[in-house]
Amino acid sequence: MDKEKIKTTVILRGIGVSPGIVSGRAYVLDRCDVQALHIKMESDEALSKETERFQQALADSEMQLRGIKDRLEDGEGIGPLFINVQIMILRDRKFVESTVNYIRENRINAEWALNLTISKYRDIFSRIDDSYIKGRIKDIEDVAQLVFRYLSDERCERVADIPEKVILVARDLSPADTVQIKSDKILGFATDVGSKTSHTAIVARAIEIPATVGLETITREVMTDDIVIVDGTSGVVIVNPDPEILKRYEEKKRHYLVLEENLLREAHLPAVTKDNHRIGIGANIEFSDEIASAVLHGANGIGLFRTEFIYINKERLPTEEEHFMHYTQVVRGDGIKWATIRTFDLGGDKFISDPRLSDEMNPAMGLRAVRYCLREVELFKVQIRAILRASVYGNTGILIPMISGVQEIKTVKKIISEVQDNLRAEGIPFNEKTKLGIMIEVPSAVVIAEYLAREVDFFSIGTNDLIQYTLAIDRVNERVDYLYQPCHPAVLRLIQHVVNAGHQAGIKVAICGEMAGDPLYTLVLEGLGLDSLSMTPLAIPRVKKIMRESTLKESKELVAKVMTFTEPQEIEQHLRTYMVQRFPELCPLTNE
């Protein structure tokens, strides 16, 4: 019987991390993940050899990573940054010492000792609430697999060896894999695991190829040369589509490309409603290399520059000059009119290499963000000095995360004032009018928003945390993620209260959570009176188009209607029906 005739169509749903639709032949990448075996070492000589094997595997792994970095075309950009992170992990003192100590103290082989080290880090990262930081355990696991392969002398398939014009299918892709992907060679990719904040996802968006992750079983359902459709917009992957499905998706792809081309052509147009209401549009970024994409997709400025990446996986804390370099690259970015830099949203749970910091039972509500800054004031001052120094190069705002009370922001202002006095005394220039804002992401901050508004120049609502703190759910816990409801009437009322409090005090209110980039919520946020929205760059053209085709009057009427509902399901259903009918091309009905 012809093998092609017995293949059945399989539809898998995952997480769309880079929009677009592509179809073609699959290429299943064999990553040959190595499993560790537990072997007892009887003699001291054997223990010494295990330590030497581990050190040699570290050196060989670093050599491979440096080789990949050297092969990258320009030596700059996101790719080399990710490779540098992996090299830093290989050199991380705690990472290395932990493994060596396991070898010596437990008298075991290097593979099993490395396995114990990774298990320890998994336990630490499992208790981290922030999804981005939690996802960084993947970087450590990727490095461990590379070391495992050298310990076991396995030689694995490389992305660079993959034939052209295929859809890459893998259990997962490491940063070293992903940065070697070229858009003229790999049409798109699909993986069993992954998240929107993974480095794999970030690179996919940077090179703008369709990608879907978190499919769980894609490597079991697909064989090399199978025909596969990847819809990175909806997160759907179709294996062995029948001719009718293939034809439908080819038409869908053509429609998508025409729409995206039109959206991109109009992306530079302002976000102004038909009744002349203007809304600022910013981009959320983590690397200065993302600025070009942000401007191309229509951002007026940088609404949120996350600075956590400057700290994570470092053997030492970054210097003031390192901070300054990053911030000047952002505020001086071509096409950027303004930039908001968030001080680090970190705590003891997010530093791998700092032995002064201890684990916490509940780091999401522990010593993190501004709380940590107010305890480690000198560390905080280093970042503030660098931001203020960079402020002379462009319109810069300082954004403080996780403020929960008035005293916190007063203390922050006192510290900033001390830094400003020191800079003046040293003759170092800075913008005296640098604006100070706070993240509104804790329910207590919402309740006292009118008091907080008297202390700052602007608000930025972080809906990701505000939703989970308000609804008492862990948004990265799969057992309760169904309760993560942006349309919950309590959430909408909290946003409304913050906007009203800010406007009464004469300050502007922005939103920088994931809600901002979801077309489903564009009119609601517009109607609630937000002054600006900040989102992933790829979402900007679609959101701006909806704004330009709507009126403020219409959006206010929609808000008035949804506020009459008591159940989040009612609100979401009403919004979805309304938006699909009103903007059929911009708000697809389903994920299929």
From the structure above, extract its key features.
single chain; 592 residues; alpha/beta; Glucose Oxidase, domain 1; Enzyme I, Chain A, domain 2; TIM Barrel; 3 domains; 8-stranded mixed sheet; 8-stranded parallel barrel; 24 helices; 16 strands; 13% strand; globular; disordered N terminus
Description:
With 592 residues, the protein is of the alpha/beta class. The chain has three domains: 124 residues, Phosphohistidine domain (Glucose Oxidase, domain 1); 109 residues, Enzyme I, Chain A, domain 2 (Orthogonal Bundle), CATH 1.10.274; 317 residues, Alpha-Beta Barrel (TIM Barrel), CATH 3.20.20. Helix content is 46%, strand content 13%. The strands form two sheets. It has an eight-stranded mixed β-sheet. An eight-stranded parallel β-barrel has the order 9-10-11-12-13-14-15-16. Helix 14 crosses helix 15. The N terminus is likely disordered.
Note the beta-strand portion: 5-15%
Number of helices: 24
Describe the strand arrangement of the main beta sheet, using strand numbers.
1-8-7-3-4-5-6-2
- Name the CATH superfamily assignment of the largest domain: Phosphoenolpyruvate-binding domains
| Whole-number mean pLDDT | 85
Biggest sheet character = 8 strands, mixed
Helix residue percentage: 40-55%
Shape: globular
Total DSSP E strands: 16
* Class of secondary structure makeup: alpha/beta
- CATH fold descriptor of the largest domain: TIM Barrel
Quick structural summary:
This protein has three domains: 3-27 and 164-262, Glucose Oxidase, domain 1; 44-152, Enzyme I, Chain A, domain 2 (Orthogonal Bundle), CATH 1.10.274.10; 266-582, Alpha-Beta Barrel (TIM Barrel), CATH 3.20.20.60. The chain is 46% helix and 13% strand. The protein contains 24 helices and 16 strands.
